[in-house]
Amino acid sequence: MKLLYFNDFRLGVVDGDDAVDVTSAVEDIPHAGPHDLINRVIERFDEYRPKIEAAVSSGTRKPLAQVKIRPPLPRPINIDCMAVNYMEDGTRSEPAPINAFLKSPNAIIGPGDTMVLDDIPATIFEGEAEIALVIGRRGRHVTAAEAESYIFGYVNFIDGSARGLPPEGNTFFQMKSRETYAPIGPFLVTKDEIDDAQNLPVQLWVNGDIKQDFNTSDMAHKIPRCVEFISSIHSIEPGDIIATGTNHRGLNAFQDGDTVELEVGGLGRLTIGVRDDLKRKWSRETRLDRQENGLEGPPLQLSGRYAPKE
Question: pTM of the full predicted structure?
Answer without folding.
Answer: 0.97
